[in-house]
Amino acid sequence: MHPRERVRQVCARWGEPEVVRGCAELLRTGPPDEGYLLNLAMSLGELSDRNFFSTGKPPGHGYWARVWAVRALLYVWADEAVSAVVAALQDQHWRVREMAARVVVVRELAQAADALLGDVDDPTPRVRIAVARALAVVGEAEHAHGLQTIRADPEPLVAASGAAALQALSRRLDRAFD
User: Fold this and answer.
1) How far apart, in whole angstroms, are the C-alpha atoms of residue 127 and residue 170?
2) Could you give the CA distance from residue 131 to residue 119 in angstroms, rounded to a whole number?
3) Same domain for 11 and 75
4) 0.85 cut: is pTM over it?
């Protein structure tokens, strides 16, 4: 089932405000061990194994709850989730950082622009690409140097995304950045 449909189902069950609150809490706390947050994470991940997040799993396995929570915020939203999404840009796992940058784009979270600069040299190319796209949407003139850093990336796809994002920022702000 597509994540959008899973989010619709959990919203029908618990209501949009509660789902947004739960997703923000999952981003702050990580893998749940019981109660509503466990049920929410399991529903968002379409899981049936209640022990999926147990400590016996491979190290770092619990990041999936944060990935699913931030991804859900692509489909359901309230402004109370802004601080959790901005904080998720500095998450220890790259999948969370990448998805948080995608949420920044969809929700046009200008509050995240400064935090995005912390990821322009992220070790994961997919994160740097997502950051470039996000800065193109929410960045201001003072964030152009971050896109210039991405444009100079040794990975061709990352560099191309940085160049495209810098052009988009230039068009959006009606100002040249070179």
Assistant:
1) 22
2) 7
3) yes
4) yes
Domain-terminating residue out of 80, 113, 147: 80
Per-residue pLDDT, 177: 86
Q: Quote the pLDDT of residue 178.
A: 75
Residue 38 and residue 58 in one domain: yes
DSSP state of 143: G
pLDDT, residue 129, reads 98
- Considering the domain architecture, whether residues 95 and 170 belong to the same structural domain is answered as yes
Instruction: Mark whether 95 and 53 lie in a shared domain.
Output: no
172 contacts: CB under 8 Å, gap ≥ 6:
136, 137
d(Cα 86, Cα 81) in Å, to the nearest integer?
9
Average pLDDT over residues 50-58: 65
Q: What is the mean pLDDT of residues 63-85?
A: 96
Range of the domain at 33: 1-80
